């Protein structure tokens, strides 16, 4: 790591407050019916963030619906207690995968390296299927926004290897 990056990271916040949104119509509908659902990826996100010393202020399930995802983005951007948000799921190439299209318009600046590194790390695990990942990150209103695939392997790669190490650094610069 370069000297400048070391200095910036030293002055970055040590603990961030995260909002976590699981974008899944099937989980959302099951919850609406009062059914028990499992959320391996959501549980993993929460555990990885907490193990890295961060806080999860809230975790919500939203359907694969542009209006509802956009509402979620607006609510977190208006919440001064949130430093960063993870949107998990809905990043594929089917017609129902609208997370990227819903979150990206709010980004003031994008971080192309996030998706590039995610796909590079994913390639080691899943091979050429990594090209179908549309993982993205950016900043808006001093907050870091991450859109990641919903599989447990993708969660581990993105949260453990990219988000936890860099989110404080990203937030520091987004607030300058």
Describe the structure.
By secondary structure, this protein is α/β, with parallel strands linked by helices. The chain has one domain: MoaB/Mog-like domain (Molybdenum Cofactor Biosythetic Enzyme, Chain A). 47% of the residues lie in helices and 19% in strands. The protein contains 7 helices and 6 strands, in the order αβααβαβαβαββα. It has a 6-stranded mixed beta sheet with strand order 2-1-3-6-5-4, with helices on both faces. Strand 5 and strand 6 form a beta hairpin. The chain is globular and about 50 Å long. The mean pLDDT is 95.
Which properties best describe this structure?
47% helix; 176 residues; Molybdenum Cofactor Biosythetic Enzyme, Chain A; six-stranded mixed beta sheet; alpha/beta; 7 helices
Strand order of the largest sheet: 2-1-3-6-5-4
The number of strands is 6
H-E string: HEHHEHEHEHEEH
Biggest beta-sheet profile: 6 strands, mixed
User: Any idea what the radius of gyration is?
Assistant: 15 Å
Topology:
Layout (H helix, E strand, L loop, with lengths): L2 H8 L6 E7 L1 H8 L7 H12 L3 E8 L3 H12 L6 E5 L10 H5 L5 E2 L1 H15 L9 E5 L2 E6 L3 H23 L2
Parallel strand pairs: 1-2, 1-3, 3-6
Antiparallel strand pairs: 4-5, 5-6
Helix pairs in contact: 3-7, 6-7
